[in-house]
Amino acid sequence: xxxxxxxxxxxxxxxxxxxxxxxxxxxxxxxxxxxxxxxxxxxxxxxxxxxxxxxxxxxxxxxxxxxxxxxxxxxxxxxxxxxxxxxxxxxxxxxxxxxxxxxxxxxxxxxxxxxxxxxxxxxxxxxxxxxxxxxxxxxxxxxxxxxxxxxxxxxxxxxxxxxxxxxxxxxxxxxxxxxxxxxxxxxxxxxxxxxxxxxxxxxxxxxxxxxxxxxxxxxxxxxxxxxxxxxxxxxxxxxxxxxxxxxxxxxxxxxxxxxxxxxxxxxxxxxxxxxxxxxxxxxxxxxxxxxxxxxxxxxxxxxxxxxxxxxxxxxxxxxxxxxxxxxxxxxxxxxxxxxxxxxxxxxxxxxxxxxxxxxxxxxxxxxxxxxxx
Length: 373
Hints:
By secondary structure, the chain is mostly helical. The protein has helices at about 35-50, 60-70, 80-95, 105-120, 125-140, 170-180, 185-195, 200-205, 250-260, 280-290, 305-315, 320-325, 330-345, 345-360; strands at about 5, 15-20, 25-30, 210, 215-220, 225, 230-235, 240-245.
């Protein structure tokens, strides 16, 4: 696609022009012919690569585009949308809100990340902020407002995974007893979380109709989430209902809470009624109970989900059974998180295979070599 350079009678005497992908002619004047030639070659090269973008398209500010992006999100949970909005307002817009899209560079994004790190913001929060910035810029690039996303290649500080904490059954029992002292029914709630593997929001949303004591089943169809100080009920995290089968001794602990409970009434409630709120529960029940039970101070309610997985695996559950109980989307997700727990059972598995082989007469006539352990 050809262009041209002409000398004109103006303060910047060299005009370069070409016909863009939209069929319209674009031109610009320069002080020297060399500058004009360099600019024209760059524009033509972008046209050849299919990367040309109308310079006027990127004149919209980031804040305008971010508002459109947020309004156009469909199918995301209220808590997720609230989190995006919070990150935009607190972290992204103060730096990039007034900046035109075409003025946002990789260098400016890199400085922004470095400033957040210097401020002491956690690596996880920095990563989340960059993801939101990048999502808006991705859409802008898809819509042809900018040639590429300048945040794509910017790295954030590595996120160190929090150590997993698994309670033994006796430790779980101590914690449940300590919680019960602080709030009636709290012990049953802790006991239930530690054996069922339900997420906090899923357990908080359980109602009388969710429980089938005779068949030892719990039907998970809802999840409660705090969004901006309000509690909202919606579908579980994976958006799919599931049924969890539990031992009878779990239902024994729940019996006082289930006695005479209406089908639509919540099973686990706050001291004065109403759904349990995570922040209130942690301060008034959880933290004091953890201290009394002599457990690690950094133990959080979500660790009871890991505890449940550990208890299931040590009881011989398959990876598929654990996946279904926890409500993970795939078995590989479960294995990625709990692979270390399964490795502990490898020696026991080898011993069982040895016993089975021997029981079938497999050693007859064979020379067996025993290796020292």
